[in-house]
Amino acid sequence: MDKQQHSVFWFRRDLRLTDNAGLYYALKSGLKVLPIFIFDQNILDKLEDKDDARVTFIHQQLRELNTQLQEFGSSIIVKYGTPTQVWENILNTYNVAAVYTNHDYEPYAKERDEKLLTFFAQKNIQFHTYKDQCIFEKSEVVKDDGKPYVVFTPYKRKWLEKLQPYYTKAYPTEKYFENFVNTSKLEIPSLEEMGFTQSKLPFPDKVYQDILKNYSIDRDFPAKEATSQISVHLRFGTISIRELVKKSMDKSEVWLSELIWRDFYFSILWHFPHSAKNSFRPEYDKIKWRNNEHEFKAWCDGKTGYAIVDAGMRQLNQTGFMHNRIRMVVASFLTKHLLIDWRWGEHYFARKLLDFELSSNVGGWQWAAGCGVDAAPYFRIFNPYEQVKKFDKDLRYIKKWVPEFSDPFKYPKPIVDHKVARERCLATYKEALK
Fold first, then answer.
1. pLDDT tops 80 at residue 374
2. pLDDT tens-place string over residues 272-306
3. pTM of this prediction?
4. CATH topology of domain 1-132
5. Which residues does the record give as FAD binding sites (predicted)?
6. Which residues are part of a known binding site?
7. What crossing angle do the helices spanning 342-352 and 307-319 adopt, rounded to 10°?
8. Catalytic positions, please?
């Protein structure tokens, strides 16, 4: 074992060296810092697609981090395995005094960190975690009586009241980069060693400021390049939430509101962890879903005969991204027109979305199904034809993703009649909620 004591910084959803809360405190700890990352087998083993683009994205970012660390004579230790196994290995190799990392709010992550807290305590190792991936967390924005908000608008009001320059100030990690452990460049396990292959999906860059000026005007039109697509970088922490909020404050109130929604959903999942798998409003679990597997496959494949729905699903399948307006349309169609359990759709999005975030994904799907916090009422059912008229009247988006749309011999007829589906949905929901 290395006799010199170290601090360890554990990268997780924060794959950057700059403005990183936990890394800042690790580098200031007074000990040399070992950076590590764990490809968590408990997570990876559940992924269905061996060319999962998110694993490729993380792998690329780690190689980039390694190159950056080499500039300071350091490198990142990357391991594949379960967290407990990896930490046993690390502690057998290095003399670790403290472990630093950033908070994660998902149920699995909370359970993992609670077990590791005990594990480290038994070995007299301090375990420090910090807020980094959101502006306000847990119970920092709650009602005056201490209860969590379950409606967005008052949450947003309190969030904005609480916001001060302190909360968007960057952590100056770059002042302490000399405190990384000096080591030669370490090898990163290949994707193939972990049972994965390289994804061919393109990844968006981190350029977002150009769209902020007209974001509120253009964001609902899917044919326009009017959204930032920054979400994958936010999801894996290759960019700081503090930077994004600070830049948006005087440029786009609507874009800032989207970032606040993200904090809101983090808060909901933290306070109501049952909502990850069950309806936030339990009465909605009484709905008798049809769950027709053939119709579900048609939805997944973008072959429902509703062009705006099919365009969205094909965009998702081919790029790992879907325009936010279209996410609402396809989710409403699945849950309302086809009466398929929102969890089926949530799981498919979780499998395909580059920017998959459990809290936001569950929140969005429950909103569409009417069973979540601040949800759309169940009788609000998106009319796909009206959505086309409002947001893609020139059919630019549809023709891009459904090129056979104009050919009645190639494009399928609608798998369900809108009017019939709407009435069936209203009757089914009404019966469940009476």
1. no
2. 999 999 999 999 999 999 999 999 999 999 999 99
3. 0.94
4. Rossmann fold (3.40.50)
5. 215, 227-231, 255, 258-265
6. 215, 227-231, 255, 258-265
7. 40
8. 258, 261, 289, 324, 342, 365
CATH 1.25.40.80 at 134-171+205-271, yes or no: yes
Output the known binding site for FAD.
215, 227-231, 255, 258-265
> For the segment 363-373, what is each residue's pLDDT rounded down to a tens digit?
999 999 999 98
Both tokens assigned to 290: 């049809």
Short-list 418, 416, 394, CA closest to 405: 394
Contact 16, 106 (CB under 8 A): no
Tell me the CB-side half-sphere exposure of residue 364, using CA atoms within 13 A: 22
Could you tell me where the beta strands, DSSP code E, fall in 276-321?
none
2 — pLDDT class (breaks 50, 70, 90): low
pLDDT at 388 exceeding the cut of 90: yes
In the numeric block, the tokens 């398929």 are attached to: 340
Length of the chain (residues): 434
State the burial class of residue 217 (Cβ atoms within 10 Å of its Cβ: 0-12, 13-18, 19+): exposed
* 351's tokens: 């499998």
List the domain boundaries for the chain: 1-132, 134-171+205-271, 274-433
User: Which pair of tokens denotes residue 412?
Assistant: 């399928």
The Cα–Cα gap between 218 and 196 comes to: 38
Q: What Cα–Cα distance (Å) separates residue 310 from each residue in 205, 307, 350, 421? A: 26, 5, 18, 17
pLDDT (0 to 100) of residue 376? 66
Residue 121: count other Cβ atoms within 10 Å of its Cβ.
11
